[in-house]
Amino acid sequence: MRPLLLLCVLLLSCPDARAWNAAGHRLSILIAWQQMSTETRAFVGRALASHPDHGRWREKAGGDEAVLIFAEASTWPDAIRNDPRFSAEPGASELLPGFPDMGRHSDWHYVDFDRQGKRVRGQLDRKIGELSAILRDSQQLPEIAWALPWLAHLVADLHQPFHVGHEDDHGGNTVLVEDPADARRPFVKLHAWWDDLSGPSGLRGKRLHRRAGEMLLRQPPPAKGGTTLWLAESRQLLAQAYPASTGSVSRVIDADYRQWAQRTAERRIVEAGYRLGRLLEEIQRQRVSRGTPDGITPSR
Ligand SMILES: [Zn+2]
Fold first, then answer.
1. 45 alpha carbon to ligand 1 midpoint, in Å?
2. Which fold has domain 24-88+107-290?
């Protein structure tokens, strides 16, 4: 097949990628866990234990280690894209007990802007605020269990530059790049190439722990900030995130670009982890100081 034709077929045949891969999400959870107190870890553990998919996460985590179950839970907003219990129309499926809706909410994973910087579609940053408020205020355990994996997932997504992308190229989803170092997949969507920078998507268990530990040693803690800062940082990185080298049919990943992108992706995942940990810590403290009943405090 001629290269140009091949590019067109590739662009049309693959669905848009819309997330760090599962390894990126799991790594940010392991890093968040390091920032969390025993009380906040217990709050998270109890909330997740009441989620209808807790058994699946436990199985994938290979046991009862709370942080690994939380790591699996953070990939749940991607898993429901193929889950028949959920649908594109939030009201179209039967509610799981206590869930506010059964939507797949594909537009929560990103926010796209036009070339003048005006937001056009997607709700990523806004949903982080709304989900944080639910976790602070809700007295309904199933609602807390629903909101927590979403919040954990979206904080990481906001740190991926192509999740705050240009609407005219669908956040890098219509940009094919050539990666000469990948014989198996020489042409790939730029967004998907970035999603996979976090490592093999099956990264779990001891190897996951080891990798998170190495990343923490290499990367300093970030400034705290909030969604406005996190979004602005990703937008700034986006400006540099299109490879400058071009080949005969597309932009090309060269050694300098690869090195910059790998370093940047690692830093963003660590930053997301630190910030999620602090955010959950804050949420837990506010619940305790206001005496918000959550029905999940164990009886003493
Ligand atoms: Zn996502």
1. 22
2. P1 Nuclease (1.10.575)
